[in-house]
Amino acid sequence: MATKPFEVRWHGRGGQGAKTAAYLLAEAAMHAGKVIQAFPEFGPERRGAPIRAFTRISDEPIRIRSHVYSPDVVIVLDPSLFEWEDLLSGTKDEAVILINTPLSPAEAREEFGIEGRKVFTVDATAISFEELKRNLPNIPLMGAFAKATGLVPIEAMEEEIRSHFERRYGPEVAEANVKALRRGYEEVRGE
Q: Which long-range contacts (CB under 8 A, 24 or more apart) does 167-176 make?
């Protein structure tokens, strides 16, 4: 009997890298021997518009072709989206909620009305400004995901990020992104 794939739902705004992170996470998982699926969903294609992206990771072929309705992990790139949408929709009590915020997990739980579930926070925006000189919280959140779940080794993510960014932007940008990934991994807090 086939097991349910591990499912991740990303919530962000256009330009924050949710789509890119969903794909990079999938590629890193594939290089670690997993079967993967990743795809975005967005309305008006403009910077700042809310978007969702999805990643599925499995040890077996993935036959599902729908959105992720019951995610194991919800990754929130922009916490202001809590005001507009039920970001926790479909999550169970054992789900991991990973939020880009300087708040502690307990403070985030109170601020965003999260009951049950495992809450992890990391100030991915601050990390991205320090390492990348731009508001791209996606890569630090990938590092935080690696630490919070243990599903994809941080080394596989580093390799994928280095390869992806070196091809497109050169070694300097690639190394800055690897640093941002590592900091997300090291600085994430959970409860």
A: 176/131, 176/132
Residue ranges and CATH numbers for the domains of the chain are 6-190 (3.40.920.10)
User: DSSP E strands: which ranges in the chain?
Assistant: 6-13, 35-42, 50-58, 73-76, 96-100, 118-122, 189-190
The residue whose two tokens read 């960014």 is: 165
Beta carbons within 8 Å of 90's beta carbon, 6+ residues apart: 68, 69, 70, 71
* Per-residue pLDDT tens over the stretch 77-106: 999 999 989 999 999 999 999 999 999 999
DSSP class of residue 94 equals T
CA distance 17 to 168: 15
Amino acid at 191: E
Distance CA 167, CA 174 (A): 9
The pTM score is 0.94
Q: Are 184 and 122 in contact (CB under 8 A)?
A: yes
pLDDT tens-digit readout, 103-129: 999 999 999 999 999 999 999 999 999
Tokens of 30: 């594939």
